[in-house]
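Below is the record:
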Amino acid sequence: MTRRGLLARGLGMTGGFVIGSGWVAGRTAAWATEVTAIRPETMATLVQMARDLYPHDRIPDENYVVAVKGYDTPDQAPMIEEGVALLDGTAADHGHPNYLGALWETERVDILTALEGEEFFHTIRSGLVTGLYNQKSVWPLFGYEGESFSEGGYIDRGFNDIAWI
């Protein structure tokens, strides 16, 4: 694909993702990932869903991609594809072409709220807790220095550093 084709395709996509055959790139093309078991559109939807479930302006999209990349397996693919179809169907019920077509965060949150009782929603939400927050690259964004056991524990390392309490 040429640069011109990439830009043309990117400008036509909703949700800020560029989707190609077997890959997804971010709105600035600063990140891209290949998918093998799920469709690229499904990955783009998962990344947006992850960002809507755990919104942090300081965390880049790449970390959300890493958090949901584990669902791109042959074992997980059927459940994920079915769940994203349910998500897109719920978005259609709310008047949008699909989940990525809901351009405002509040609209997407309404769609997610409608699915709170679904197994798919709980699987993604619970997986993101560890998938997103266990990435060492996001720890500094929250002021977390990591484990202290190897440094002698928190008593001797940072126990009184908390200024917001």
